[in-house]
Amino acid sequence: MHGRLALALALLAAAAPIPLDAATSSTFLVNATVQAGCLVVGGVTNYGNLAFGSYSALSTAAVTTQLGGTTVTLQCTPGVTLSMKIGGGQNNNGVRNLKRSTGSNLVAYQLYSDAAFSQVLGIDQTVTVSYADPTAIKLPVYARAQLTGALPAGSYSDVLQVTLTF
């Protein structure tokens, strides 16, 4: 019996692998993917306001304003093309209108994408938002209205839907 045990141990010893040189250094892959996109800073839901101000009911002035108030700041991955479109508003009849809060009187107004009021922002027209700093993008929205001089006193307003794509 001892002979068989000795033979089995000898066979096991012969079958055991011979130690090889082990690799003591190697490599492994490290990677990441940066997704293109934009962020609304602060997660605000109101992108600001267009406030024309207060005027006499007899005024016939052309009045202007730009997006202000708590205006939204966007941050985009450098190189991302950011676009916006603005709907016709709650008082749209083919033209954007401010409506008197206690009546049906309207004041037509037009939106622009530049301070010179030369680039009209049509209803639901998609426009590219230009920016120099991808960490501090402001929406370029300017407005102009022509007062008629025959408006009843009151508060006139509208609400616009802004859609951003990137």
TrEMBL record:
Spore coat protein U/FanG domain: residues covered: 25-163
Gene Ontology biological process: cell adhesion
A Pfam family recorded for this sequence: SCPU
A GO cellular-component term linked to this record: pilus
Superkingdom field: Bacteria
Name assigned to this protein: Spore coat protein U domain-containing protein
Organism of this sequence: Pseudomonas bharatica CSV86
